[in-house]
Amino acid sequence: MIGYIFLGCLVCFVFGSPYIQTNLELSTPIIQQVTYPIDHAEGPSWDARKNILFYVDIHTGRVFSYHYNTSLVHYITLNGNVTPVVTSENNPNLLIVGLNRSVVAVEWDGTNEIGNQRVLTTVSEEFPTSRMNDGKADKEGRLWFGTMGAENTSTGALTPNNGVLYKITKDNLDNPAIEIAPVNISNGLAWNSANDLFYYIDTPSLTIVEYQYDDVNGTISNPRVAVNIRSFTNLTGSPDGMTIDIDDNLWIALYGGGAIIKADPKTGELLQVVALPARDVTSAIWGGPDLDILYVTTSRVSLTSDEKKYYPEAGSVFAVTNLFTKGRPVFNANIVDNI
Ligand SMILES: *[C@@H]1O[C@H](CO)[C@@H](O)[C@H](O)[C@H]1NC(C)=O
Ligand SMILES: *[C@@H]1O[C@H](CO)[C@@H](O)[C@H](O)[C@H]1NC(C)=O
Ligand SMILES: *[C@@H]1O[C@H](CO)[C@@H](O)[C@H](O)[C@H]1NC(C)=O
Ligand SMILES: *[C@@H]1O[C@H](CO)[C@@H](O)[C@H](O)[C@H]1NC(C)=O
Ligand SMILES: *[C@@H]1O[C@H](CO)[C@@H](O)[C@H](O)[C@H]1NC(C)=O
Ligand SMILES: *[C@@H]1O[C@H](CO)[C@@H](O)[C@H](O)[C@H]1NC(C)=O
Hints:
The structure is a single chain. By secondary structure, the chain is mostly beta strands. It has a single domain, classed as Neuraminidase (6 Propeller). The chain contains two helices and 24 strands. It has helices spanning 2-14, 305-310; strands at 30-33, 41-47, 52-57, 62-67, 73-77, 82-87, 94-99, 102-107, 117-122, 131-137, 143-148, 163-168, 177-183, 186-191, 197-202, 207-214, 219-228, 238-244, 250-255, 259-264, 269-275, 280-287, 293-299, 317-321. It has a four-stranded antiparallel beta sheet with strand order 1-24-23-22, with no helix packed on it. The protein has a four-stranded antiparallel beta sheet with strand order 2-3-4-5, with no helix packed on it. It is globular and about 45 Å long. The termini are far apart. The chain binds 2-acetamido-2-deoxy-beta-D-glucopyranose (NAG) (6 copies). One 2-acetamido-2-deoxy-beta-D-glucopyranose (NAG) binds at residues 79-80, 99-100.
């Protein structure tokens, strides 16, 4: 499978032929490496006010900014495991990040020195070795942040059922609401354009689950499996981060699968496979001035030294264009305005 992906990639880079690209849809995605590799790029967010892509390197505690205007990359370093990073509605120089099991507000403009930091809340005291994983703000600026159990550093085995999806608002910081529990690895997160459906991934389940979503009350209900990765027999890997396009199709990063896929949650069908020159694809977000660039994050942290030679660009952010669709603006957090 890895060989198949690699060949597919090589062919599409060298020749760019529409006939050699996936036979599922006649399009020729253009894939460009836009940042230098880091260990585990994740949790991307697009700030349309600044043309900045924010992303993190979880285990080094770094929050990165990729500047579309200049192609420059900057970073700050926090003390712990950091993910995700979300921009704030009323203060363009305030980021909300997950740090270990906490939600932290950090002053940073994406270019200059880091400012103040303040812990807003800490969750999951009952799972002391768990940590924040993926998360996003909804249309009202509430945070949907999820956690995962610890992974054994030698075996990689996950401490099961230690994850929780929380809803964190400016009014419940002393006791964030539990929305989904237990989970193993909280991931994904997307809302449809009508803002009445919510999509969620618990990575080892290999499924994308759709919930009815009530934006006024911020509630989810009636889960159903919308996409089952197991049904895509030619693909490998596990669903990690996810975004949605203006046609309400999902773009799902396949960790271990060397690709990001487009799937229709209404039918569960696979619509497109975009192979990337990295095995572990972690997440994606639409960005660029026209929101038509799919920024895809990848990891190299689990690769052996031989695999790192095979995938020298693993850990980079890639800009994928020519996808014949685009995204909607990212929602900002509305939790605190100043710290
Ligand atoms: C990038 O350019 C846009 C358009 O000129 C501008 O609004 C934005 O502030 C710039 N971003 C930064 C970080 O300077
Ligand atoms: C995060 O966890 C690491 C490892 O346990 C610890 O060294 C660090 O102090 C923690 N960070 C914060 C802000 O508590
Ligand atoms: C990790 O797994 C190894 C092998 O099973 C075990 O010996 C070790 O105790 C585990 N470590 C933790 C922190 O659970
Ligand atoms: C988490 O993983 C464990 C081990 O595979 C499994 O037994 C459990 O059912 C999973 N939990 C959920 C919520 O899927
Ligand atoms: C939202 O909450 C209000 C007040 O509790 C309730 O009356 C209403 O039915 C809720 N809406 C939905 C869709 O659950
Ligand atoms: C899946 O792989 C098989 C065997 O290599 C091939 O015959 C088939 O065309 C592939 N299907 C798709 C949808 O790519």
